[in-house]
Amino acid sequence: MPTPPLSVQLYTVREALEADLDGTIDRLASIGYTRVEPYNFAANTAALSAALERNGIAAPSGHAPLLDGDRDLIFEAARTLGIGTVIEPMVHPERWTTEEAVEQTAQALNEVAALGAEYGITVGYHNHWWEVETDFGGRTGLEVLAGALDPAVVLEVDTYWVAVGGQDPAGLLVKLGDRVRFIHLKDGALDKDNTSQVAVGAGRMDVPSVLAAAGSVEVGVVELDDSAGDLFEALEASLHYLQADSRQAGA
């Protein structure tokens, strides 16, 4: 299938953002990104909103600590920024050791989603590797979570961390089905060393198989948690790779 609409997780360029928010957003726009996925966006809503608006950049999704943060503040900020889906970025590994704990997390997300609906905002969850390292009768923790979530709650599958956790990203996307509305697209050595991450298409990830399995995905979010190389160069190379893949798929 063609590559879905692309975004970039702003956590990738967090140091640049802290030093110069306007210049960083301008640079992402000059590279060719028309969508971003902000993080901790309730802390700088006005400045971020102005920078995005100036560059014609949309923010369809964003990360925020929904389970232990000020939810009303987060949803108000999301509404200001036009963020339609707010995603809980992580729940600590110790909460993925039993099915009961996973189901408790699902219930907490369901409750937050009910509040989000009052603001017209969807709630989602983003995984790391520990949610798929666990095995509950042949199901990963992420699958257990999905089974206990309200239908209104969506998933953002970080396909790289799925691979690091020992699962096949494409296969898991198929299992999770249309619950998955966003994916993180990243590449690297498939280990837990963030500095080994590289531009999408330049590492060990089978990116074409991921894209082929991403039938329900609304947005593909490019991210590097870190890198030994230049992050902006990696983001630009990722965009070119994914856009070329999309053109070939549509040819």
UniProtKB/TrEMBL annotation:
Name used for this protein in its record: Sugar phosphate isomerase/epimerase
All copies of domain Xylose isomerase-like TIM barrel, residue ranges: 26-213
Pfam family, one: AP_endonuc_2
Entry keywords, A to Z: Carbohydrate metabolism, Isomerase
Top-level division of the source organism's lineage: Bacteria
InterPro entries: IolE/XylAMocC-like, Xyl_isomerase-like_sf, Xyl_isomerase-like_TIM-brl
GO MF annotations, alphabetized: isomerase activity
